[in-house]
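@channel sequence for tomorrow's demo:
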Amino acid sequence: MGVKWPPSAATRDMFVRNGKGDIQLSQTGPLASGVPGEMAAFEFAVRHYGKKTLAQLILPAADLAQHGFEVSASYAQALKSVSKNMAQFKSSTAVFFQNGSPVRAGQILRQPELAGTYRAIAAQGSDWFYHGLFAQAVETWMRANGGLLTAADFAHYRLELREPVASSYRGYEVVSFPPPSSGGVHVLEILNILENFDLKKMEEVTRLHVMAEAMKLAFADRAYWLGDPDFVNVPRGLITKTYAASLAQKINLDHTTPVPSHGLPPDSQTDLFKKHTTHFSVADEAGNWVACTATVNTTFGSKVVIPGTGIVMNDQMDDFSVQPGVPNTFGLVGGEANAIAPGKRPLSSMSPTIVFKEGRPMIALGAAGGPKIISAVLQELVGMLDLGMTPEAALAAPRIHQQWSPDELVVEKKLSATLKEELARRGHKIQELNAVAVSQIVARGASGTNFVGAADPRAGGTAEGW
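structure tokens (generated this afternoon):
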């Protein structure tokens, strides 16, 4: 709904230098940002579905920004990891550095300019953001620093309402985020592939192997087929059971299978979809269920804070194909379907998902973590729907990730050595990471009348009821 879009002056080769795509330009600095859509999306949601006003919801955040909060170890580490790039921008170091260094764990981070921004939005709504002082401040900074975004780009931003994607799985209905996110399409595509296997009866290594092979097949499709459906053909056949069954037949239970290219879903030209990440999942006694994912893309986005506002700009332009065949910051390779064009929305991996049983919502979930969002949501669904895990157990289970290119299997370090050895024996090239994505889940409890919430242990959050 509130996906970002590029400047009107953007061109397909805007990041190409000396014949090669330069991902530094798409990830850091003035060319990396698109017009943020989050403000429009939140205001729409409050107006159409909320009981409180936007001002009531945002003013507590203004107070928090004004008075500050104690920086956690994970926040400090994230900031430190991008501090070299952030140091290029005085307006950014003025907010996030203290005594010449990025704020450390235990220090208090106060953001009075951001508090002023929130209060202005509380008073004037999104007009201040898209048609007022913020849009003008962005244009002023961009003109001075070689960027393309203008106040007119903000004024022309439009919110798009799109039909979610849906499919069945083991007797449940799974509803997820549509293109231009690839997340929902490929969560469903992989689930449809896995439905051809009895995952519950498999030994764990075989189950992980099959899931990895299914991920690989889906991500090969992502690289070729996925883009903004207002600009390119995105076939609905990707989430059909018949196409999934044909892909499932390619999976060898004993060894990896090469996937040289994308598949060819049925009716690929006629049956089409048309018109630093945070996720939260919420349910209430009135029957409202929300799975919401918001992002500035990578850690601290473009590393640019617009002076006087406290707002960190996104680096969403890196979600486009900087150049066909050139991987982005997440190693994802895109093609012509995701090439840059004015007014076109970039491909993402956001996968906010709600699961229904006989028309009744049962689970809301999603994740942060680039393309690893897809594999995290997938594995949590398998954990709960196939293996009978609680949300807490599904979140805690070790995760894997296979995105076709590079052709390697990412596994969390806590996965047992035996499983890693067995997966390697089946042909997987193992790459270890401390964590694969961060996720949050809310679900119905065993009684069917209460709610159970679970926060990912990888991030130290909590699940709260009120």
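heads up for whoever presents: The mean pLDDT is 93.
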